[in-house]
Amino acid sequence: MNERQEQSNTILEAWDILLQYRWRFILPAFIIMSGVLVVGFVIPRKYKAIAQFERRTDMVMTEIGTKGATRSFQDPKSILTEELKGQPAIDELFKSIDPKLPKLGIPNSSSDMSMLRGNVIKKVNVRWDISTNTIDRVRVDYVDNNPQLATLVVNTLIENYIKRSREIMNGRLNQTAQFFKDEVAGNRKKIEEYENNVLEFEIKYSELLPENPNNIQTKITTLQETLTELISEREAARALTKALKQSIDTEPEIIPSTILGQNPEYTQLLDKQRKLRDQYTEFTSTLKMKSRHPDMIALKTELAAIKEQLNTTPSEIVIERQTQNNPKLSELEIRLTTAQGEYEALAGHTAAMEDQLKGLQLEANKIYEVRSAYRKLQRQVIETERQITFWEDNLRRVEMALAAESGNKGIQLMFLKPASIVSKPVSPNWLQLIIAAVGMGIFCGALNVFVSHRTNDSFNDGEQASSFCDLQLFGAVSEIISTQQRKVRKIRNIILYPTNAIIMGSILLSLSTLLYLDLEKPDLFKDLMHQANQYTAPQKAIADDSKRLNGQSNVQATTHDLTGDTKE
């Protein structure tokens, strides 16, 4: 509680001091704030020029970039910043803008040019708005006191980069295309040599080549396939014969047969049940008997008994029993005879084909040397064709890229948004100036109050004077105010102080508004100033005319006094 009370007392004491020296706080704060706002009108402005360009890879270039050929001419993103603001780019920039600098009011002295070069290197920023595999949108900005120079710098940097990139890309594409053309021509010669060797070999060993439809390997393959099918059919016939024999062994020669008919007892029970249900319906619907009636109870009992008898009585009974020959056995014997005949025929055909296959295999062992030599020639031709296909594919891709680049397709470098003349400055900032003015005004006012309070040697009450002078205090009068002084104070408190406050606030608000228009709405501020100049110009002309007329009348009056002439 004591600490809180001390804090409250300290705050109240500081508030009393502030009220006592309020005008020593308000006047310095107003002067400093007004000064800072006025200085804001003369601080040098800095303008930021922003330009955008786009590097886009369309579907043609995506198709081209599926293999590694185009990696030799695609620029990686990591060097884009160096290409835009590196030393070669800055040198090319100054070569381009050097003739235009005198028109912008920039001297061509060595010191000024070196300072400008340092500012460009330091203040040019490169940022990516979008960065994907197919599109890169890059933003370049530069801040300078001259808005025209800032615009010229960013636009020239991007234009030079686009021009340089296209030249480099076209050169790389042409070099790559020439290399691929040389490789294609060399491989075509090899293919011609290998094809001549293959043709000579085919003419010499035409009957032993695997491409000949009548060669031994083709016959062996055909016989093997046919033999495999015959063996499968033979085994299927053997399995069928075995299954039929087992079925015949299990089938009886004579089978019994029975003739079934309807059970008369079951029919009588159904008729009786139907009659009882009709009677039950008559009792319940016509006679309106209840379930507690003895006849109803007896009827229900009889229906339940008949239902049990129906459940236990079969609906059909055997009327006659007899025996006959099994027809399935005769059918199985016929199928067995047919299956045995097929099996014997397939076994003979299979044995003959196996003997023929062994003879062909003995003859096929003699052509392995010829076939290996032919395969070697074929592999050479295929490998050379694969190489020429690879080089032709790369050549096609590079030619597509070159054609696309020549037509501004493929990798497109587009100057998306050139920088325009900037009218709104980025520095100084209006909000920062307001904060600085308020902060400095409060600081100076508080410092003045502090100094005034610390240097004040007057006594606020009689107790302070008594304790300082070590005298006994019998009574004290703080101030004797006359009627005239009270009227003066009343006028001062009611009229003078509020008027001063309104004037100060109006001045600060006007300065803040003008500064806001100058920094945030420069076009509107210029229009307002132009209209004000147009409005004040006629007033100045009228004032000049009145002064001139007054001067002429004064001259005439002076002449009349000197000559003494009068006119009626």
Automatic annotation (TrEMBL):
<dbReference type="InterPro" id="IPR050445">
    <property type="entry name" value="Bact_polysacc_biosynth/exp"/>
</dbReference>
<feature type="region of interest" description="Disordered">
    <location>
        <begin position="546"/>
        <end position="568"/>
    </location>
</feature>
<keyword id="KW-1133">Transmembrane helix</keyword>
<protein>
    <submittedName>
        <fullName>Chromosome partition protein Smc</fullName>
    </submittedName>
</protein>
<keyword id="KW-0175">Coiled coil</keyword>
<feature type="coiled-coil region">
    <location>
        <begin position="177"/>
        <end position="240"/>
    </location>
</feature>
<feature type="compositionally biased region" description="Polar residues">
    <location>
        <begin position="549"/>
        <end position="561"/>
    </location>
</feature>
<feature type="transmembrane region" description="Helical">
    <location>
        <begin position="494"/>
        <end position="517"/>
    </location>
</feature>
<feature type="transmembrane region" description="Helical">
    <location>
        <begin position="21"/>
        <end position="43"/>
    </location>
</feature>
<keyword id="KW-0812">Transmembrane</keyword>
<keyword id="KW-0472">Membrane</keyword>
<feature type="transmembrane region" description="Helical">
    <location>
        <begin position="430"/>
        <end position="451"/>
    </location>
</feature>
